[in-house]
Design goal:
The structure is a single chain. The protein is built from 18 helices and 13 strands. α2 packs across α8 and α5 runs parallel beside α6. The longest helix has 20 residues. It is globular and about 65 Å long. Bound molecules: uridine-diphosphate-N-acetylglucosamine. Uridine-diphosphate-N-acetylglucosamine binds next to α2, α6 and α12.
Length: 382
């Protein structure tokens, strides 16, 4: 009996939903297919992000295979979106009968699919576990804490994550420190990155050679009109000394349009673009003097690229980027942001070093650990 069961290799159901999931999943699927023996996988896309700029163009740039299953949930309140993913994922899970469900990051789709899987007794694998901002007003923090609680195998990107997990009662035996798959994507794609001059040249006839990159999309920054207005005015001020390129997330674009802020409209030094594909964004970050962002992934990518990053938030769930990398938390106070940019322009910014296991080999480690874990689990079940 035992032999028959262990010879059947069931697939791992891998879930993506939103833009920051794609650059994490691409190297994982690559490592699964080149592992010996191969780790069979099927890709589910929940459809949390659906615009071409937020979705298809990343699949193409990253070489992600087309999803085997698309749930097409679209936007909604957190409750509606999470519930809709759960409702549509459950029959898929039942039909697929996978060995495990693998989720990445901290978006609503991550928690929704993890919850469905655990309730049906299917093991949950969480990649990028144990990160904590300790700010429960962030929707992602709630997703992180809850997903980790119901995960059977947790892959971490930085050593400090283990202490966070242990504090929440998760035993070390479930945790594997493998490094950062986001950085695998940087390594895989840096040679193919679109030169910044080309990207900027498409947006303006006189592309700046020295520039900063801005992204903003956190609800705490863009949903409060007073904070958003203040940030836009500050960026307009910064752009007098340093031209800024700002690929605008759809959520942010809607909020900016509602504000109709004159100082922003008239800021000649700010180049606003649609969201960029991964290879264009990578090229733009690599050549930037500084990146100003509230994105989690970009705090990590700038550390990997050695580019100074100013995080426009009051905390980070990725402290290693501050302790070892090029990241500085500056919050949203205008004077502090202006000072920090002036400092970068004067000194070149924080040098930083590459954190342990951010070496472009995290995904093969995951493939190896997961294969061993599934084998051991099969033996236990048999
Ligand atoms: C989500 C993630 C966030 C991640 C971000 C990256 C959660 C809780 N948040 O935030 O962690 O950093 O993705 O982008 O999961 N919209 C479009 N087109 C799209 C997708 C969204 O127009 O393809 C608009 C819709 O108006 C939508 C809004 O953007 O209501 C917000 O989208 P949503 O997926 O709810 O959250 P994000 O802000 O993108």
């Amino acid at each position: 009996m035992a032999t028959m069961q262990s010879n059947v290799i069931r697939a791992v159901l891998c879930v993506v939903g939103a833009r920051p999931n794609f650059m994490k999943m691409a190297p994982i699927l690559g490592a699964f297919s080149s592992a010996v023996p191969r780790v069979p996988a099927r890709l589910v896309h929940t459809g949390q992000h659906y615009d071409i700029a937020m979705n298809e163009q990343h699949f193409d740039a990253l070489g992600l295979p087309r999803p085997d299953i698309s749930l097409e949930v679209g936007s909604g309140s957190h409750a509606v979106q999470t519930a809709e993913v759960m409702r549509r994922f459950e029959p898929v899970l039942e039909e697929a009968d996978p060995a495990a469900v693998l989720v990445v990051g901290d978006v609503n789709s991550t928690l929704a699919c993890a919850l469905v899987a655990t309730k049906r007794g299917v093991p949950v694998i969480h990649v990028e576990a144990g990160l904590r901002s300790f700010d429960r007003s962030m929707p992602e923090e709630v997703n992180r804490v809850l997903t980790d609680q119901i995960s059977d195998l947790l892959f971490t990107t930085e050593e400090g994550a283990l202490a966070n997990l242990e504090r929440e009662g998760i035993p070390e035996s479930r945790v594997r420190f493998v490094g950062n798959v986001m950085i695998d994507s940087v390594h895989r794609n840096l040679d193919r990155a679109v030169p910044s001059g080309e990207t900027l040249g498409r947006a303006t006839p006189a592309p700046p050679a020295h520039y900063g990159v801005v992204t903003l999309h956190r609800p705490s920054n863009v949903d409060d009109p007073a904070i958003l207005r203040s940030l836009l005015r500050t960026l307009a001020d910064v752009s007098r000394d340093l031209p800024l390129v700002f690929p605008v997330h759809p959520r942010t674009r809607a909020r900016i349009d509602e504000l109709d802020e004159a100082a922003w409209r008239d800021a000649a030094g700010v180049l606003v673009t649609e969201p960029l594909d991964y290879l264009s964004m990578l090229g733009l970050m690599r050549d930037a003097a500084v990146v100003l962002t509230d994105s989690g992934g970009m705090q990590e990518e700038t550390t990997a690229l050695g580019v100074p990053c100013l995080t426009l938030r009051h905390n980070t769930e990725r402290p290693i980027t501050v302790e070892q990398g090029t990241n500085t938390i500056v919050g949203t106070d205008p004077a502090r942001i202006l000072d920090a940019v002036a400092d970068v322009l004067r000194t070149g910014g924080k040098a930083g070093r590459i954190p342990p296991k951010w070496d472009g080999r995290a995904a093969p480690r995951i493939a190896e650990e997961l294969a061993a874990w599934l084998k051991a689990r099969d033996r236990e079940v048999a």
